[in-house]
Predict the 3D structure of the following.
Amino acid sequence: MLIRWGDEQTGIIKLVLLRQSCPCAFCSGESSVFGQVSFPAKKDLSLSSCDLKSFSFVGLYGVRFVWGDGHSDGIFTFNYLKALCKSEQK
């Protein structure tokens, strides 16, 4: 995925990395009211799981992606997407 930011810079994120980096509680875990973080069992993703079907903006701060396996729970903030772009540049 190629992203052009408001400052005209561009970033690239592989769709596999984007899907694996889903920030939703099911994919990335969640913390209890006591601060204990529970991580779900890692799900094996098929190639079709990484097919990007659609996306929509969430407010002025992020993007929701719909994946080939129907998953669409994660909201990727623009700051998170920029961080993923920088990790791809290394």
User: Anything to note?
Assistant: Residues 57 and 63 are 4 Å apart (CA to CA). The mean pLDDT is 89. The radius of gyration is 14 Å.
